[in-house]
Hints:
By secondary structure, the chain is of the alpha/beta class. It has helices at 93-104, 124-132, 143-155, 170-180, 205-217, 237-248, and strands at 2-3, 5-11, 14-19, 22-27, 46-49, 53-56, 64-68, 71-75, 114-118, 135-140, 163-167, 184-189, 194-196, 202-204, 220-230, 256-263, 269-278. It has six helices and 17 strands. The longest helix is centred in the middle third of the chain and has 13 residues, at 143-155. The radius of gyration is 19 Å and the shape is globular.
Amino acid sequence: MASGHELLDVGGGARLERFGARVTDRPHPGALGARLDPVAWRAPDLRFDRDRGWTGEVDIAEPWAIEVEGLSLELRATDAGQVGLFPEHAAMLPWLRERVVARVGAPARTQPPAVLHLFAYTGLVTLALAEAGAAVVHVDASRPTVAWARRNAETSGLTGRPVRWIVDDAVAFTEREVRRGRRYAGIVLDPPSYGHGPGTGAWRIEDDLPALLAAAGGLLEPDGFILLTAHTAGFEEARLAAEIETALRRPARAIETGPLELATADGRTLGLGAFARSSGRA
Length: 282
């Protein structure tokens, strides 16, 4: 199994990346400027074009393996131009693990800290939380994606950890959890700009995020932690912090923000979104 992810080059509206043993060339509107190494772009293993889809030197339908932060994940080329991993999220894992480990070791806690992961995708964050000792509720609206996450749990040797795999709409599930009186030590959300839940109406982050965060706030323990990430234009660091401050009634000093980004070996960065997080303590 090949390890790691690397942003090799950016420019010309595209990003050249190494995911384990394979190099991909994918479009990205923020990848501006000149390419540093034009030769490296000539023969990637996989190239995605919005009109033609995937082309490449390898079997496009064949999955491959990668190791990220000690987790073994399956990647594959999807119709949407994704590969099953948002590598910028790996930078969030140390903070999340610290929150979980601190609660696992708390004298008054007799059960693993429960963490709700909404829009959970293929499970990178879920598995990191479970490995650290959390009991995770993994919620995603796509049944194939949840099945993919479960395979990642198998390849990472974490099938015995307490993870509930839920195919459901994030808003509907959260509201039901509030009515059930459930409580969580932490909540992680990575909402898309737009989406559809199974048998429900459309999701629009602009319209629906405030209500979802308000409901999520009703599930958090008083000192519970929250991580909110977004890849949507207009939802930069200050906006995400304000959403948490309003919905959870937490002081601004208790909220930390930053960019979601990747960097090349020579220090050039590619902005991919933003995050806001709070440990529940000012």
